[in-house]
């Protein structure tokens, strides 16, 4: 068996790591208040794997023998656990279905190639056999990008890139590293930092997502204000296409027609398998700190982030949470740590006396990196802007807490599922001029959907990833479904309302989570029918037989 | 007749504006030294238009009538001058051929639509008649992107966007403007600056190129270090495709699969006609200055630019010329202005005493923009880095001179042609680690080509457009061709040697001039055969009949 480590088959992260409410006294009352459930009582738990009815592998002997010959017996498996792990990502739909044993189509075989040559051989064998190939990285996708189509009659091969996990070389002069696509965030970053470098790319999924997955879905990290989205970080790449290898050399910029690099970015496996990339790396910053601020309300926070984006300051992180998410943050703080000490000292009492409506307070985190002079100048400039919008500085303590907790949120889905509630996320990006409208309309759309479904729901939001012309709004929502209707039907009503609100108010269907099957219904509304036409032309000419991860990116009626 | 103003049919810029050597006493001796020709004697001049043998228009009556009905009689012309103006760009090959009356295929008709609806109607009529459509902006392309194929049997329609030249709206909150594609740089910038905004996009061709042309060729401006390449500046766009309109809404960033925006960027008319775009605009900077520096040699200058690119300083311009281009700059300065005053005061004598080899001196221009504190901090940081590499500050005077002369260089082609010499440019981008190699190899390749051809040639270079991982190197070369061989044959030897050197040493075929027909032979070497396969799939599925500017972007053997 391959020694590639996977996440839990039923949830986020590796076995034994989970959300822990015990040291967060404010959490249970908060959850009771916002979605009306009691999380202190006995919880359900994921089903036992043995209870699952896993469909048998349909791997034909001949293809199986070929794959074993190409990559070695131990790197090809039809083991049920491995196949279930490779069936779903970690979106809410995925988790509900896998917990319910809803497994209409499971990959027939998992292959773990060791290098590009083996990837080539496997791709050619799979396409040659008219089977379906689905590339698999960390398995953390939450848009439905890696699940076999339920009605897929052909053999389904999951190609796990987990063994391609090395930083191959660092070009110190150019600030570029050649990195294999299958490495998880922490593995890659460890190899870089031990030589004094960093990619600076930190998506929420950092611990369980790979470079190849980031590229294939157009990922963005929390520090994108400084380090850029993955589309900027990746300067060159290698991808295995059926019968050939695409090689884009590392270039700072180029004028060679329609960008092939930007065709592979976001391609979600439909053009081939990304095996390695040249990425920007940076020397570890001389100074790094995250400072927390409070704004009297959401509009003030957004306006401040916008002003920062056109100021001379260039922070590495700009983030502000709405009042609901701020309340959530306070509710998940550990006792007598971080914010609470200040709060305990009567900060909120002081703010109330200043006329703040404490129900509307919004917390913000701004990251600073660089030499002392730059950090000082940026802090001064940002401090001025925060003040102009009525905000105040909280300090480094809560900022450090943000850094510690920043990868923890995805565990909440599982915690809530064990307690009968559904939680998920949807994010968008829009011009600054439309963010207020996107926010208000989306919150309203979610509430209307909750009413329609007949549940007590919650939605919260933060702004992250500021650009010259706009920003990303990241929504998290949760509700306990009614028992008289299938829970995913209820979820779909809410999720669809949120997505439609994005599109209707100038936002995109996703800022950095990809299209998958979940967001594909909004593609024509987002990039126009003619845009989808161009994409169909590109994909269908490259993969006429629909062997490469079919079903993702496009609405079903646009498949060829 | 349409009132759209065009450049000279035979050269750069409008009638009456040309390179003037009279107030530059150092110029004639410099030219005599480097390419052995005397520019003080009587010069040739472009032929009279009447001497040209312009092939008659082959516009079928029916298509002509349709076009007149769609856009109005006065906006459709088969006038010979107008047709010749629309036959070529302004590359060296273009100018030599048009001056020689080499007109194998001239557009049969020029159409000047007033708006997107008319563009739609024209595109559909032209494609419906199986004619060829070539979009035309400022006509300043120098890669052969807008010339009809010599053997084109079908009707050729040149679609001039000159009447679509308005800034339609400015979104102040988002720093975005909706701008029509046919506006020339100065027109658009004037409409923006009168409202307090700027795009900051200043390619060498600024005065005679359009937004649509910038997008279609992946342009980059001198201030790209701050404002970005056009690919970053453009956030949304509208393009007319056969039978449909592509609409990409303005988004700061998005995760919607392979980027359709990045397919239109660089498409050089092969996917359709860009009619408008949403572009980044910025408030006019509080402070703006360009400061000149001197480095003891090229390697020191490059190393300093590289260090600046990873420092905390964020200048708007980073530029350094090699020794040859520095000598050229000194030779084209006006008497007792700018540099010369300092030079006159014995600066060079001082440097010589310090041990500088004055043959190797390199001039550099760094631009600063922003609030006083930022400009001060950037200047301080840059000054430190310049000093670390042995450079010295010259000051603002020469910097201001750079700003005045920055759009003048393209006129030199015509000046030299009138005096029997060929001059042109080739530019590339490569990682910092390979720039030295690209430079040395390219200079060597040019010299070898000059020897092979048997001429006295000159080549000079500057670095512009710095990125995290590399920079653009911009070469200018000139030589007087032998009389016993066709001059373009000689030019091709030199141009090909330079292009091949780029590719062989880690550079791209063009950083911002596009592919056209001139650079198409290097496409497979640059983006790999598989990359060209993807591009062919995209283009051929969108335009199976090859009606949209066929011949550009791809080597002929890759056309369908």
UniProtKB/TrEMBL annotation, chains A, B:
Domain of life: Bacteria
Example of a GO biological process term: lipid biosynthetic process
Name of the molecule in the record: FAD-binding oxidoreductase
Positions annotated to bind FAD: 204-210, 217-220, 268-274
Family: Belongs to the FAD-binding oxidoreductase/transferase type 4 family.
Catalytic residues as annotated in Swiss-Prot or TrEMBL: 474
A molecular function (GO) term: FAD binding
Required cofactor(s): FAD
Xref: Pfam families: FAD-oxidase_C (PF02913), FAD_binding_4 (PF01565)
Entry binding sites for substrate: 413
The keyword Protein biosynthesis is annotated on this UniProt entry: no
Site (Important for enzyme activity): 319
């Amino acid at each position: 068996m391959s020694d590639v480590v996977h996440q839990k088959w039923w949830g986020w992260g590796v076995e034994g790591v989970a959300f822990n409410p015990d040291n967060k006294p404010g959490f249970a009352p908060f959850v009771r208040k916002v979605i009306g459930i009691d999380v202190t009582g006995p919880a359900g738990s994921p089903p036992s794997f043995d209870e699952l009815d896993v469909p048998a592998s349909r791997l034909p002997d001949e293809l199986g023998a070929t794959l074993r010959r190409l990559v070695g017996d131990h790197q090809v498996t039809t083991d049920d656990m491995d196949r279930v792990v490779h069936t779903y990502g970690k979106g809410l739909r995925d988790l509900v279905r896998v917990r319910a044993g809803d497994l209409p189509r499971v990959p027939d075989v998992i292959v773990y190639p060791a290098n590009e040559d083996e990837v080539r051989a496997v791709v050619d064998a799979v396409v040659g056999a008219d089977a379906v190939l689905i590339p698999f990285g960390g398995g953390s996708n939450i848009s439905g990008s890696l699940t076999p189509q339920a009605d897929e009659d052909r053999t389904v091969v999951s190609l796990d890139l987990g063994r391609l996990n090395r930083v191959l070389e660092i070009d110190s002069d150019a600030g570029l590293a050649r990195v294999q696509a299958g490495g998880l965030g922490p593995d890659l970053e460890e190899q870089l930092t031990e030589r004094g470098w960093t990619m600076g790319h930190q998506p929420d999924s950092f611990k369980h997502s790979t470079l190849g997955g980031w590229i294939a879905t157009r990922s963005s990290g929390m520090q994108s204000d400084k380090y850029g989205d993955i589309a900027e970080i990746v300067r060159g790449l290698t991808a295995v296409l059926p019968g050939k290898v695409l090689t884009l050399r590392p270039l700072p910029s180029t004028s060679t027609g329609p960008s092939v690099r930007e065709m592979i970015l976001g391609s979600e496996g439909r053009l081939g398998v990304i095996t390695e990339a040249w990425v920007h790396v940076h020397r570890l910053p001389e100074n790094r700190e995250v400072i927390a601020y409070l704004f009297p309300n959401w509009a003030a926070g957004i306006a401040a982030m916008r002003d920062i984006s056109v100021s001379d300051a260039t922070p590495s992180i700009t983030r502000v949470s709405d009042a609901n998410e701020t309340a959530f943050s306070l509710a998940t703080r550990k006792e007598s740590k971080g914010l609470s000490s200040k709060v305990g000292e009567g900060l909120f009492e002081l703010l109330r006396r200043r006329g703040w409506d404490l129900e509307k307070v919004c917390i913000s985190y701004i990251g600073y990196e660089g030499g002392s002079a730059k950090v000082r100048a940026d802090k001064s400039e940002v401090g001025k802007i925060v003040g102009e919008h009525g905000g105040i500085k909280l300090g480094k303590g809560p900022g450090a807490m943000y850094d510690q907790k920043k990868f923890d949120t995805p565990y909440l889905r599982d915690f809530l599922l064990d307690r009968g509630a559904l939680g998920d996320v949807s994010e968008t990006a829009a011009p600054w001029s439309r963010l207020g409208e996107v926010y208000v309309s989306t919150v309203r759309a979610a509430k209307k959907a909750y009413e329609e479904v007949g549940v007590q729901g919650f939605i919260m939001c933060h702004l992250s990833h500021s650009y010259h012309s706009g920003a990303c709004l990241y929504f998290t929502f949760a509700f306990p479904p009614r028992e008289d209707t299938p829970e995913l039907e209820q979820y779909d009503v809410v999720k669809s309302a949120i997505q439609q609100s994005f599109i209707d108010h100038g936002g995109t269907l996703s800022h950095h989570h990809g299209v998958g099957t979940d967001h594909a219904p909004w593609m024509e509304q987002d990039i126009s029918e003619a845009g989808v036409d161009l994409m169909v032309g590109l994909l269908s000419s490259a993969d006429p037989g629909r062997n490469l991860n079919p079903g993702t990116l496009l609405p079903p009626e646009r498949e060829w």
